[in-house]
Amino acid sequence: MYTIEGRVRYSECDETGKLSLVGVMNYLQDCSTFHSEDIGRGFKQLTSEGYAWVLATWQIQVDRLPQFGEKICVGTWSYQMKGLQASRSFVINDASGANIVKADSTWYLMDIKEGKAARVPESESVYLTGEPRVDLPPTPRKIALEGNAVDGPAILVSQQHLDTNKHVNNAQYVLMAVDTLVALGYSHKLRRIVVQYRSQARLGDTITPQVYADETGFSVVLKDAENSTVFATVRLEG
Questions:
Q1: pLDDT at residue 188 tops 80
Q2: 2-127, what's its fold?
Q3: Are 222 and 195 spatial neighbours (Cβ–Cβ below 8 Å)?
């Protein structure tokens, strides 16, 4: 397992003084990118070879959000690379070593020139450690949408939403989903998040959220202005 140490900063906290949900996702993403850098497979190296890793799915289980000033340890490891897909698990531990956040993810290696997924080459096996998948339920292949959709306010993609690939950062889609629930007056307490990424939103795109509510949570579909392309579907459960 690759690990980084951290301490929850004030700028990373929500209104309750705890690490925000986006802050959690940023720690996970930062851990994986530092891991890649430290084994010589960082995004600059990959770009020079014509590739980029693209996140396909997240499952994040939050047992407890750390508070401002709390010391944490973030860990990640890749446990499988098969065909077009790679899988990576994460944990965030508190100072006692207890898991307070667990996550699992699947990724595709994108051939930048061809604009499509490529088979994972042997060079990427350097990620594999032999550790098993984190202890989480299987990530659903498809997020179910029940009942009628409620439209949320449109979101214009700006510079602050983008990452180095020049498309919307993965964590930003979750923030958009949460902000949509707040805008529509839904109360929510998050313990489990599942995200399925479908297309890449870019600067100037308009994202239109649609919310489906059921007994256990909310599913938020983030589409383009014409409702023809789904960028991501976010499942939020308490």
A1: no
A2: Thiol Ester Dehydrase; Chain A (3.10.129)
A3: no
Express each pLDDT in 208-226 by its tens digit: 999 999 999 999 999 998 8
Q: Is the CATH number 3.10.129.10 carried by domain 150-237?
A: yes
Please, which residues bridge with residue 162 across strands? 168
Compute the distance between CA of residue 66 and CA of residue 61 in angstroms, rounded to an integer: 14
Q: Does the reported pTM lie above 0.85?
A: yes
Q: Which of 188, 204, 200, 186 is nearest to 232 (CA)?
A: 200
Cα(14)–Cα(238) distance, integer angstroms: 17
Measuring CA to CA, how many Å separate 24 from each of 3, 154, 198? 15, 25, 22
* Residue 163 confidence (pLDDT) above 90: no
Token pair of 99, please? 């898991």
Instruction: Report d(CA 94, CA 18) in Å as an integer.
Output: 13
| Domain residue extents for the chain | 2-127, 150-237
The DSSP bridge pattern shows strands 155-156 and 99-111 to be: unpaired
- Give the C-alpha separation, 197 to 53, whole Å: 13
Report the C-alpha gap between 177 and 183 in whole angstroms: 10
